[in-house]
Amino acid sequence: MFGNRDQLRESFILAWEKARRDEPLEPLEAALAELIRDHPEYHPLLDDRERALSAEFPPEAGQSNPFLHLAMHLSIREQAGTDRPPGIRAIHQRLSARLGPMEAEHRMIECLGRSLWEAQRAGTLPDETAYLECLRGLVKA
Fold it and tell me: 74: domain range?
């Protein structure tokens, strides 16, 4: 959808710049700008184009990658919107009703991240069944 790392970052930065200038946004840009608005802790980074494009976020430094975090929110919202994998929309709705949409997505991101990490480690596609089991566990908790 975005291409390489720099293209992904450019998409977020451009959407944020346009939103701050109250320029018309394409639907994807509007979705990105909304996510960024919901994460004010990332505003200083995204307000500095050079820093945002060059910043590194190694796991051993103990900081999360804001672009990955925002992209995972976008993924969760897309999954819930299309109900793919089947059942995720209902999980998202139930968790959102109980925790609020942002907290629900933050918890769901944990399952998505685990699923992607395990797939990468195994050199396979993500296990949809295990992903849904993790998400269902959130509803039960």
Answer: 65-141
- Answer yes or no: is 60 within a domain: no
Comparing C-alpha atoms, which of 16, 47, 13, 46 is closest to residue 30?
16
- The total of structural domains in the chain comes to 2
Which residues, including other chains, have CB under 8 Å from residue 115's CB and lie 6 or more apart? 126, 127, 130, 131, 134
Taking the C-alpha atoms of residue 119 and residue 65, their distance in angstroms, rounded to an integer, is 19
**Residues 69, 51: one domain?**
no
At 10-66, the pLDDT tens digits run: 999 999 999 999 999 999 999 999 999 999 999 999 999 999 999 999 888 888 899
Q: Which residues are CB-contacts of 41 (< 8 A; sequence separation ≥ 6)?
A: 66
The SS3 call for residue 41 is helix
Q: What share of the chain in percent tops pLDDT 90?
A: 90
| Residue whose entry in the numeric block shows the structure tokens 């590194």 | 56
- Whether 29 maps to a domain, the answer reads yes
